[in-house]
């Protein structure tokens, strides 16, 4: 929240979305946010794809989305229990499609131009640091996504 407030005036005049942990977005809210965005940021627990319905996502067409940033793959005891209970009802293939590389490929196929995603499990603090670096370089310094990713890799 601090990072969003810090960069609010730099390019965020039309930002909308859901922040906080008070409500879980419905599938309709996910779809509305995804279809109306030019950039999308997910900062949350577990796999991004575990929060949206796979069959609905792959049927979408979101060519207006130029950049999707997925700062996910954070695990707590509560989120791990939720994902375990959810995965029981999914096939092995479905779960495999929720992995980072497969997620990036699916998003690309439905029209997303660029995907920046976490590749392995991390902490909320590490994702907060990544978000700060992303916003600083993309919004403050005006660097390209490629330049920004290169900075993140260091």
In short:
It is built from 8 helices and 3 strands, in the order H-H-E-H-E-H-H-H-E-H-H. The chain is α/β, with parallel strands linked by helices.
Give the count of structural domains: 1
* pLDDT averaged residue by residue: 90
Strand content: 5-15%
The neighbouring-strand order within the major sheet is 1-2-3
**Distance, first to last CA:** 25 Å
Rg on CA atoms, Å? 15 Å
Total strand count, please? 3
Shape: globular
Number of helices: 8
Largest sheet: 3 strands, parallel
- The run of helices and strands is HHEHEHHHEHH
Protein name: CFA46 protein
InterPro entries: CFAP46
Describe it for me?
- One of its GO terms (biological process) is axoneme assembly.
- This is CFA46 protein.
- The chain is of the alpha/beta class and 154 residues long.
- Helix content is 46%, strand content 12%.
- It is built from eight helices and three strands.
- A three-stranded parallel sheet has the order 1-2-3, sandwiched between helices.
- Helix 3 links the parallel strand 1 and strand 2 (67-74).
- The longest helix has 17 residues, at 124-140.
- The radius of gyration is 15 Å and the shape is globular.
- The mean pLDDT is 90.
